[in-house]
Specification:
single chain; alpha+beta; Hypothetical protein af1432
Length: about 180
């Protein structure tokens, strides 16, 4: 499925805010961000990396689908366990679980000099798109050709602030054992 647009996103924060607004989750997001600014930072980094044009297999917004799932799982976990720490972990893990989908994206910008294709190994989608003002963007989804572990490792390095990239912090933030069945 192709999707053509003619605008470059302003920033990861703007992309995130737009997606949350379209999902009708503004007040829920504000409350979560006030309580957990690190989750907001991770969500902004996620939005900046995948951008506003990535799509799911069904042709819907990958960013919106992932955020909707993350907010839903966070609420369900907190309601079930009454432990917000578990909710934070599941929110962050939900974003990571969609890492492989990023490598199923074929985002191309048409320029006077020819087509320019986004390479998620090089930079995030927002960084790539801001290099081209008022250009036509075509987004399509293909089959991902990357292992989950590699995709998640790349996203982990891009989502988590560098000062938190140590074994103890990563284990605490994303450990499966902290989430109830």
């Amino acid at each position: 499925m192709n999707k053509k647009v003619k605008s470059a996103p302003a920033s990861g924060k703007a992309v995130l805010e737009d997606a949350i607004r379209q999902l009708g989750l503004v007040s829920r997001a504000k409350l979560l961000w006030i309580m957990h600014p690190l989750l907001e930072d991770v969500a902004i980094r996620f939005a900046a990396y995948i951008g506003p044009h990535t799509i799911t297999e069904a042709g819907t917004s990958l960013l919106q689908a992932t955020l909707s799932e993350a907010f839903s799982k966070h609420k369900a976990e907190v309601d079930k366990t009454e432990n917000d720490h578990f909710g934070q972990a599941i929110f962050a893990r939900t974003l990571l679980q969609h890492s492989k989908e990023i490598f199923a994206q074929n985002i191309v910008v048409s320029t006077d000099g020819g087509a320019q294709k986004w390479n998620p190994f090089v930079c995030g989608a927002v960084e790539f798109l801001t290099k081209f003002t008022d250009a036509e963007v075509t987004a399509a989804r293909t089959q991902p050709q990357i292992a989950d572990q590699i995709a998640q490792a790349l996203m982990l390095v891009n989502l988590v602030p560098k000062q938190m990239l140590d074994n103890e912090t990563i284990t605490e933030l994303f450990n499966d054992a902290t989430i109830t069945a």
